[in-house]
Design goal:
Number of helices: 3
Distance between the termini: 36 Å
Helix content: under 10%
Shape: globular
Number of strands: 20
Radius of gyration: 22 Å
Largest sheet: 18 strands, antiparallel, barrel
Strand content: over 45%
């Protein structure tokens, strides 16, 4: 299918959805819209095959809608729109399409884009689901988020959408599935869930997910336990099991522990199936200085292995609040196995209510950068040779500076 045909098909789908939501509003109690608009520019000092200096410009909008149907049902929908040029457009083209996922290196099939005169443009359906509300039971179904765990940085338990601290603004993808929630009391939630296989063209059911979770809250602590089963290939009786636990406690120090073990009998998974993170945060000087640290053990077959290739990582961050409108965060993302680092500096300023300016700078570092000895690291400016086939959109860069104006409405 040509890009023109794709563009026409997407317009038909888009306007059909608009008509659908318009008809929905005829019998809904109220159709409300909200969203955000990000205007971003970037400057990058490239390495390897990248230009010595390059720029990027991007307009991104997320439009959300919600409609209540009588007193017991709610409809949710969300769309993403993008127009990009320069580095932002090159990243899309190198991956073959439109990327919004927190896992840009896992083979997620992106949406096709259309070429303009000086930009590329794309549209994506982000959310489309319903919720039926009962007194103690809720049913959700459709294209929706199924989040798990309390991890702030690495997200070991959130196996459907692992976090990536190098891409803190990436929007987690939804999954096509359903969840049945039961609330025996205000502090306890039991959830049964299911999701279609990651390969949307799979017809045998291979890779389909089912699972259960339990979430319990106390005054100063919360606990979540999780189990899921991924169905095996046709003719096999062995699937993939995932079991995990996530705990957070709000004591003098905020503590988080997040762990998920993936067991694949055919691969004889051992300790390499474990993703484990442990973090703490504390505020000083009347809350103006916030310190956050979170360690990750990443097994090669674990939930976080899709985005990271080594075993031991540490995130350390310091946030200073100048006032209610301005703060700066200085963070260091470290990989101990290959001695590589990425320092990140981010400045946030609220211009006025609903408008925020964010300026972010990253400077990847490793041993090869200083000694030229060939010991390139995963978090360094030039990815090691073993990672290059997995990172086609990262030819390498020595410095990355971006500014983003976010408007909320």
């Amino acid at each position: 299918m040509s890009s023109e045909q794709v563009a026409v098909s997407k317009r038909i789908i888009f306007f059909s959805l608009i008509l659908y939501t318009a008809n929905l509003g005829l019998f809904a109690q109220g159709l409300t819209f909200s969203g955000l608009l990000d205007s971003s520019v970037s400057l990058r000092a490239g390495a390897v095959d990248s230009p010595a200096f390059s720029y990027g410009v991007e307009e991104f909008a997320n439009i959300r809608m919600q409609a209540k149907l009588k007193d017991s049902a709610t409809f949710y929908g969300a769309f993403n729109f993008i127009a990009a040029a320069g580095d932002y457009a090159a990243a899309v083209e190198q991956m073959g399409g439109f990327i919004l996922s927190t896992q840009p290196h896992t083979g997620v099939s992106p949406t096709s884009y259309a070429d303009g005169v000086n930009y590329i443009a794309a549209m994506e359906l982000e959310r489309l689901y319903f919720r039926l509300n009962g007194e103690s039971v809720d049913l959700d179904g459709g294209l929706m988020r199924l989040p798990f765990g309390y991890g702030q940085i690495w997200g070991s338990s959130d196996f459907l959408n692992p976090k990536n601290p190098l891409k803190p603004d990436a929007r987690p993808r939804a999954v096509l599935g359903a969840g049945l929630s039961w609330y025996p009391n205000d502090d306890l939630k039991l959830l049964g869930f299911g999701a279609a296989p990651r390969n949307p063209f799979e017809q045998s059911g291979e890779g389909g997910l089912t699972g259960i979770s339990m979430e319990r809250h106390w005054d100063k602590a919360s606990l979540q336990a999780l189990y899921s089963f991924e169905s095996p290939a046709y003719g096999s009786d062995q699937g993939i099991h995932r079991a995990g636990i996530s705990v957070k406690a709000d004591l003098e120090v905020g503590l988080v522990m997040d762990a998920l073990y993936v067991y694949n009998h055919e691969a004889w998974t051992e300790i390499d199936g474990l993703s484990f993170s442990l973090g703490a945060d504390y505020s000083f000087l009347d809350g103006n200085l916030i310190v956050l640290a979170e360690y990750l053990y990443n097994g090669v077959s674990s939930s976080t292995a899709a985005g990271f290739s080594n075993e031991n990582y540490l995130y350390t961050g310091f946030t200073w609040r100048f006032n209610d409108y301005t703060n700066v965060t200085i963070a260091l993302i470290s990989c101990f196995d290959d001695v590589s680092f990425t320092p990140v500096v981010s400045l946030n300023h609220d211009l006025f209510q609903g408008a925020t300016l964010t300026v972010t700078a990253q400077a990847p570092l490793d041993r090869d950068l200083f000694s030229g000895d060939g010991n390139r690291g995963e978090l360094g400016p030039i990815p090691p040779d073993r990672l290059q086939p997995l990172l086609p959109e990262r030819f390498g860069h020595y410095f990355d500076l971006s500014a983003k104006l976010r408007l909320r409405f």
